[in-house]
Amino acid sequence: MKSSGKLFVPSLPTLWPHMLTSRPKPGALPPFSSPNVRYFYFARNAIWLTVKMLGLDQGEVLMPAYHHGVEVEALVDAGATPRFYRVGSRWDVDLEDVARRIGPKTKALYLTHYAGFPGPAAEMRKLADKHGLILIEDCALSLLSSDGAVPLGTTGDVGIFCLYKTLPVPNGGALVVNGPRQYSLPEPPAPPSASTFSHTVSALLQNLELRGGAFGRGLRSLVRAVGHGTVKAASIERVATGTQHFDRRHVDLGMSPLTKRIALAQDLESIVEQRRRNYFFLLGRLRDVSAPLFNQLPPGACPLFYPLVVQDKAEVLARLRAQGIDAIDFWKRFHPACDAGAFPEVAQLRRSIVEIPCHQDLSPEVMADVAQAVRDALKSDRKTKKRAG
């Protein structure tokens, strides 16, 4: 399927040129508001350091069966053993299953907040305290989200964040240590400046394409072609973000100063408001063609994307991408350490969830086009199945 060229809807927010010179604002949400924070190139680096810092290596960590996989890889590489607990069909943690699986070797509980939707942090905190365990809050998909008035990442002993999934920055992860206990955390070195520059230019070009229509698309294609040749000729190592696997070679990489500057200049409250607006727009336009995973958006939640429930991921993804919408196949595979057969609800989630962008760059007019494209893709998918049947 070839793109119609009418839409360009990137999965992540783009970098507007004025953001490079905007003045920093005081961060009102974690990790920017946290007194004890260290920044990294990747959130996975923070997971690796957490295991080492808290002495979780040689012990077991209870993790959700619904996971990306890279967080499990980071934990295993650091020396801990993952054990998995049940997550239901609506991303709900089975707290009774968590309690049953706590054993003599368990050292920590690991809670993932999915796509901005808060998990049961208070209940997991009580369970951790009852058994003398560490609680790790994974907020990599939930930057800027709160559970009502409680910011995610502040209930656990540590909170782990990813910046570049929510903000238009070239890299960035964070480790927040909560509570009175202080840890001596080394400041990781900055990443290669050439790699940061490459990511920054890419984000600026995406913004150009988003705003510039056909002209922007043509100019972006030309600049990308020249840029790829230059990068290759100069042998620049581009440390890719959004990769599927943990790489020990990059574990000590810190966050670039440019990332911090851009991040601190963002209007965080406005980003939350715009994402919620776009999510509600899709919810209202799509609920009649695909039963929503959630009928409401909890107070304080900052949605990373709209989780669309589909029957045939490959077909729907192909149709959306043909319309210029960068929809994503959300968490398709289990980590090999997790027995897929033991968690049928998670297996079904992996077969059926597609990420639909709803980020702050997308205007109501664009969201209307996105909603119509999704409706058309779902109807076409159903017609194909009827003919096949």
Describe this structure in words.
- By secondary structure, the protein is of the alpha/beta class.
- Among the domains are: 25-177, Type I PLP-dependent aspartate aminotransferase-like (Major domain) (Aspartate Aminotransferase, domain 2), CATH 3.40.640; 268-386, Aspartate Aminotransferase, domain 1.
- The protein is built from ten helices and twelve strands.
- The chain has a seven-stranded mixed beta sheet, sandwiched between helices. Strands 10-12-11 form a three-stranded antiparallel beta sheet. Strands 6-7 form a two-stranded antiparallel sheet.
- Strand 4, helix 4 (121-131) and strand 5 form a beta-alpha-beta unit.
- The longest helix has 42 residues, at 193-234.
- The protein starts with 36 loop residues before the first strand and ends with a helix.
- Mean pLDDT is 89; it is low at 222-236.
What's the gist of this structure?
This protein has 389 residues and is α/β, with parallel strands linked by helices. It has helices at residues 43-53, 70-77, 95-101, 121-131, 193-234, 257-264, 268-286, 313-322, 344-352, 364-388; strands spanning 37-40, 60-64, 81-85, 106-112, 134-139, 146-147, 150-151, 158-162, 173-177, 306-309, 328-329, 353-356.
Straight-line distance between termini: 23 Å
Shape: globular
Give the amount of beta strand, in percent.
Answer: 5-15%
Instruction: Let me know the number of strands.
Output: 12
Mean pLDDT level: 89
Structural class: alpha/beta
Strand order of the largest sheet: 1-9-8-5-4-2-3
Q: Report low-confidence residues grouped into runs of 5 or more.
A: 222-236
Question: Helix count, per DSSP?
Answer: 10
GO molecular function: pyridoxal phosphate binding; transaminase activity
Organism: Pyxidicoccus fallax
Family: Belongs to the DegT/DnrJ/EryC1 family.
Protein name: Aminotransferase DegT
